[in-house]
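Protein modeling request. Please complete all fields; requests missing the sequence field cannot be processed.
Requester role: graduate student
Desired output: 3D structure, token encoding
Chains: 1
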Amino acid sequence: MPFPAIQLFPSAAALVVLAALAGPALAQAGDVVGEEQPGVPAHVRAPAAPARSAAEELATFRVHDGLVVELVAAEPLVRDPVAARFDEHGRLWVVEMSGYMPDADGAGEDAPAGAVAVLTDDDGDGRMDRRSVFLDGLVLPRSVAPYDDGVLVVAPPHLLYCRDLDGDGRADERTVVARGLPGLDNPEHAVNGLTRGLDGWIEAANWARSHRRVDGFWTERATAGGGQWGLARDDRGRLWFNTNSHALRMDRAPSHLLARNPHHGPATGGNALVAGAAPTFPARVTPGVNRGYRDGTLRPDGRLATVTAACAPWILRGGGLGEAYRGDAFVCEPAGNLVQRYRLTEGDAGVGAEPVVRDDLDFLTSTDERFRPVGLAGGPDGALYVVDMYRGVIQHRVYMTSFLRAQVEARGLEAPVGLGRIWRVRAPGPRRAPPARVADAGWTELAALLDDPDGWWRDTAQRVIASEGADDPVAAEVVRERLTAGPSAL
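Delivered output (490 residues):
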């Protein structure tokens, strides 16, 4: 893809001066007492970081193997997105954390500015046409997951189950499923990543609890927890997560089983490291990382050396990028303005992950400093969907250093806010045409979808059958016949 001309501003010398000015009088919460913060090396020049239109940002992407990057939604249809999931109608549910870091000090972050929006593609061209607000007035919401005839939403300090009872597209009923969730003072370490497990329980990252509704009542079970931001599931039902400095971790066995004995301690197979401080290969110099002053954080050429903000892992369970990509893991690195790809291997020694780099670049990279991939999702077409918060400041005030604050001010990164994009990465050529909306399928069609080659269809069909057919003997018989007729992809 073509790249726009880059203006080099400000000079490294100017950033050194600004960093020096950010001394004790302007110390940031992330500063370590007694630790020196040298400025950006003199030979590294940080390009300007203007806010670009979605079309302009698209021109800054490079992606592997001739794949295609397409815009799915942009402001004003979506604002400050942090997570997204498709439902059985093909609608995209988006969590908008609009209160996050309104400025470099985080002033006013407690305002109820967050929302859960529903995006609809009316003409089937793959680009969203319509926005409706399902739930608003939220403070720093973090995650959404379709469940039964509603959705679960992490809206600190609550886990909510919300339903639209009158069909107007807005939530009429809010049920508090769990209380006391953190995330208002420190959004970086709190519950998120709602993901339905193979057994129907809703799992979460950064929380040693999972939930399920039975006969109208919510029940809870203990898990081993794990992860920082984002949670994914593979075809075997195993959960994948990470931390900001470890690209991939996983539970090799169901976490709730590993946590049954409180005296056991860390159980073998839980929270297993698969890819640690993995190298990164950005498309641009990245001095604007929080601890870029430390030796080894940046390469000599000014690019981020290893993951420092790894988040939102995803296992590609569809064929929308081509069969060579199926089963691979993808990891967001918003500080480096990129998405990584890992080829997973299974062996006697366990699961391994081999990073895939082309031409000294990670899978999806951008020269736009405001490209902030913070979430990944799969869709009905088997493609990879990228949630781009599109902001200059992604680091929270609790950890921001004077080194980074100087660059925020020098390059005008704290404004604007309220932007955001959803991107789709897929193979060139026609997109997969969904045979029908899952919501419109009968029991026989739903049972057949349990053998679909793409995980989104299997998962969504399973969820609808479990929700709507739990008390229907016809549904049970149809599914039983299908599963006993031959091998199932489940």
